[in-house]
Amino acid sequence: MYQIQGSYWFVPALMAIGAIFLSQVSVQLDRQLGSKWVTDSGWASLNQPEGARTLLATVAGSMITVAGVTFSLTILAVSYATTHFGPRLLDNFMRDRGNQVTLGTFLATFLYCLLVLRTVRSGSDIFDPGEDAQLFVPHLSVLLAVGMTLASVGVLIYFIHHIPESIHISNVLSRISNEFSSKVEDLYPESLGEGARELPRELEEPFLEGKSIRSLHAGYLQGIDETQLMESCEDCDTILQLHVRPGDYLLKGQKLATVSFQSSAEPSEQDRFESAIHGSLAIGVTRTPTQDIRFIISHFFEIAVRALSPGVNDPLTAIQCIDQLCTGLVELSARSLPPRFREDDEGQLRVITTETTWNEIVDEAFRRLIPYARRDVNVLEHLQEQVEHVLEISQNDELNPQLSEVVREVRELRERGEH
C-alpha cells in the first residue's frame, strides 16, 4: 500500500479508467434520450456536429498539453526538494495526493473528450454498408465535457498555488510532523503500561540451540506482518525470536531470527514455517516509515544538518526542525514502547522482538544533531531550551533521564564555547 500511495501512476490510472467508463455510459444515455431534452431545457445548448467536434478536439488537445506542463512542474518541484531537503524526502512529494489528482484530472478529461469525439456523426459522413447515415451529436456527453473542462481549470488554479506551497520549508516540516504523529498513534499504545516480562528461564536453553532463519535477500526491512507471524508460530507451536527490526539493512545470509519448536516437527513442516516467516517480512531497496518511526525522525535530522552546513547556513530551518522534533517527542513521551514479548490469545509466548529503547530515540532525535548544532550558538541555545521544555511536560520516568543528559551535554558545550 505504501508503494502504491507513492506512485504517480495509480490515482491517474484510476481516474483515466473512470473517464473511459463515463464516456461509454454518457454516450449510451445520449442514444436513448435523443436531442429532445436539449430543446426542452433552457440551460443546455443544441450543438451541431462540427461545433461539437471542434469543442471536443480543442479541449482534448489543451488537456494533454497542460498535463505535460503539469508533469514538468512537478518534476522540477521534486528536484528542488530533494536537492535542498534531501533525497530521502522524495517519497513525501511522490505521495502528494494533490499532484496525483491534478495529473489524473487532465488525463481523464483528455481521454473522455477523445472517446466522445469519435461518436459525433453528421449526415455527410461515410458509414459502413447497411448502417444508417444519420446525424448524431451526444449533447449530454458534450455538456459533461464542458463541466470537466471547468473542473480542470479549477484544478489548474489549485495546482499553481499548491506547487510553491508544497516546497515551503514550514509546510514540508509540518507534513513530516503529521506523519510522525500518525505513526505514534499506529505503533504505540495510548498510555504508559507495565514493563514487559523477561524470558522464562526454562526457555533460555532452547534458544541457544534453536534453528536459525537467515535472509534470502539484501535490502532494508520495510515492515513485518505481525498477524501472519503470530499465526505461523501458533500453527507450528513455536517461539520465534527476531534479531532485526524495521529500518535495519539486511545482508543476504544474515541471521533474521531464531526459532524454538516446542513440539517435534517434521523437516517439511519446519521448511514451510521458514517460508512463512520470509513471507511475513517486506524487504526493499529503501527505508519506509510504515513501521519505522526512526526513519521519520531522520528526516528532521537530515534537513537540520543540511541547513547547518557551511554551504547553506540556514539556522532558522534547523531551529524549526528542533521545534518539530520536540513536538513529536512530547506526544511520544505519553506512550509506552512496544513490549518485546508477544503472546497469543491464550497467553502463550510466541514472538520475541528486538527492543526499542528511549535512549535510541533520544540519540536519533538530539544526540546526533549536537555535533552539527555546536557550529551555531543560537541553534545550540534553542536546542537546550526546547529539550528543557519537553522535560517540564514529560512524565515519562524512562525518557526524562535521557533528556536530562542531553541538556547537560549541550550546557557543557555552551559553557566551553563562552570561555
Structural overview:
There is one protein chain. With about 425 residues, this protein is an alpha+beta fold. The chain folds into three domains: about 1-125 and about 135-165, no CATH class; about 205-285, Pyrimidine nucleoside phosphorylase-like, C-terminal domain (Aldehyde Oxidoreductase, domain 3, Alpha-Beta Complex), CATH 3.90.1170.30; about 290-340 and about 355-419, no CATH class. Helix content is about 60%, strand content about 10%. The chain is built from 17 helices and eight strands. It has helices at about 1-5, 10-35, 35-40, 50-85, 90-95, 95-115, 140-165, 170-185, 200-210, 225-235, 265-280, 295-310, 315-335, 360-365, 370-375, 375-395, 400-419; strands spanning about 210-215, 220-225, 240, 250, 255-260, 280-285, 340-345, 350. The strands form two sheets. It has a five-stranded mixed sheet with strand order 1-5-3-8-7, with helices on one face. The chain has a three-stranded antiparallel sheet with strand order 4-2-6. Strand 7 (about 340-345) and strand 8 form a beta hairpin. The longest helix has about 35 residues, at about 50-85. It is flat. The model is unreliable at about 190-195 (pLDDT under 50).
